[in-house]
């Protein structure tokens, strides 16, 4: 890379994503892994370190002017990666396939080339996730009430 390429925040984001998600190919396969799944092998602390490093790409997105909906979507990619990666073995396999940093760079590139469309789709996705989470919370609360009422009836 030339000095002007290393000064470009988007190129830095691509470089970080490549290091974290796809730096090395697994011989005999088309699978590429980076530092993120390797860090995930260290229970607990590795996933947190991977999330912190992934935060750099999100910060670059915010600095480049990505709207809140896009940044929230990027944070969601990192959060999902971090949460699922905490599950032993399954999480590591998920980490190899999910590649949250690569997804976030793609979101950022789309925002920079088609800002309106990316913001609209990100808003829709964030709204859908918020609705789903609210419905899950309501369902969990309703289930809790049903269980408590059943226990009260059983004990009386």
Structure, explained:
There is one protein chain. The protein has 156 residues and is mostly helical. It has one domain (3-155). It has eight helices and two strands, in the order H-H-E-E-H-H-H-H-H-H. The radius of gyration is 20 Å and the shape is flat. The relative contact order is 0.12.
Question: Which labels suit this protein?
Answer:
single chain; 156 residues; mainly alpha; two-stranded antiparallel sheet; 8 helices; 79% helix; flat
Spatial strand arrangement across the major sheet:
1-2
Radius of gyration: 20 Å
| Fraction in beta strands | under 5%
Uncertain regions spanning at least 5 consecutive residues: none
Distance between the termini: 75 Å
Continuous helix count: 8
Shape: flat
Give the SSE string: HHEEHHHHHH
| Counted beta strands | 2
**Global structural class:** mainly alpha
Portion in helices:
over 70%
How many domains make up the 3D coordinates? 1
Major sheet summary line: 2 strands, antiparallel
Average pLDDT, all residues: 87
